[in-house]
Write the structure tokens for this entry.
Amino acid sequence: MSFSSLRIMAGIVVWGVVFLATLSIGQVRANWGHGICGPWGCGSSLQALVACHLSWLVVLAPLASIIQSKIPESFTRFLGATLIAFGLVGIVGMIAYELFTWWPSATELQRRYLWQRLGFSIVTQIDLPMIESIITGCLIYVQTGNRRIRLRDYFPGVSKLVACDAGSVSRRPS
């Protein structure tokens, strides 16, 4: 066996151990609070929620790193923008869904907690890695060293320049 084969196998074993460790957080018997509950709804235990979100990061981050090392830098920036866009579109979709389904049936007391309900819905959504996609997309930008996203390079006709500098987003005219 070559050194690179051993390195790949060791990486897979370490990844598997870390993945199982993040999943096992959900079974920790500790008092982390009684979960996420309030007039906006009730969710699962905090341990289970942390385990699911960390597991998504353990899946996405290495994949993004591997893909980033194998593709050209210009496409890497596009991959980062796509991951960020996926996360943002998912969050906007989740907000729209809540406004169209939860809001009409909510009582006056519950409506006072609209922002908590929206945050609750986004944080407890573990089927799609929206938050993790945004984090991974921003990490890709930090790793590439070029922190400017030129939307007009990917979408002709867009004339604004969006700068993503380690998590902060600002708009400047072009």
